[in-house]
């Protein structure tokens, strides 16, 4: 389940769409109705970019840009100026020697594992079978970057230290996705993470963090970003998944490693002439969204509890809010209905009440069972637990 409409899912389900980006499972008229209802909704838990007009997005960019960067400076050309400033800022936040900007996370991580494969002499990458490169990148690791993947575990969690230590094949890179999105944005405990990293090093592997959503992991671990990132040899972070940026990613790590990835970035077609709008939006995200993420995580826990209470009171025969206590500001909700029934209830609630509790549902299990991803961001801070319970009642009435 990847970017099924990456634009529509920008904040709530940011990359659930590659397999059917054509929208074939969501015919045009139904899609437009749904998007119109979500855009018009006055009360939402998050407001992804798709809910804003182009004028809204441009207005925000031009309004905030002078507050995060000197607009009298020269524009960027092939990754200098503002792009270098963004790289320095992220390297500092992550406590790494250097960082390089990439147009996409897919490109960044392909280059990361390829570079480490050359340095370790082992082109095998150990990662989870539900990790983003395995699920949503059309076999790019093997087809484009010529690396092989293996899976220390198939359990819906990060591999344990024991599984890493006892895995029967050698590998050059251990890649850990934090949080692991597909099973519900789940994270290990701090000690489990430390132990897993140590086990990887015992296998003479380098450790790479797929940290697309690393920004919101600090409340769960109780550690600052640089302390978390210090466990890994290299770290990838995204700017659009949590920070409301236009796109883009950064690879951070040792200076010599980062310089080598810049060479591969050029070879992969990532040496873009000008990227100042994306860089500006990333700087705005670091200023506006990054400090607020802990409050989003705290509110997500309130929302998750209220959802459970609401579905229980409504007498829904089966439901699951997972994790019960969200590890980040995103989590899953499972209900025993088909996607068409749940999507229709979602749209009708938005149209008739001005409240959009959910966004879109997916079939990801036995027939008749559907899942959605809930993201709690700025607009969600305005909801009380009673608001959530009331919205659940209205939603269930439309099933």
TrEMBL record:
Q: Which Gene3D superfamilies match?
A: Aspartate Aminotransferase, domain 1 (3.90.1150.10), Type I PLP-dependent aspartate aminotransferase-like (Major domain) (3.40.640.10)
Instruction: Give all residue intervals belonging to the Aromatic amino acid beta-eliminating lyase/threonine aldolase domain.
Output: 79-308
**Which cofactors must be present for this protein to function?**
pyridoxal 5'-phosphate
Q: Where is this region: Disordered?
A: 1-32
Question: What Pfam families does the database record attribute to this sequence?
Answer: Beta_elim_lyase
Keyword check for Lipid biosynthesis: no
Which UniProt keyword terms apply here? Pyridoxal phosphate
Task: Report the family membership.
Answer: Belongs to the threonine aldolase family.
Q: Write down what this protein is called.
A: Threonine aldolase
Question: Which organism encodes this protein?
Answer: Streptomyces polyasparticus
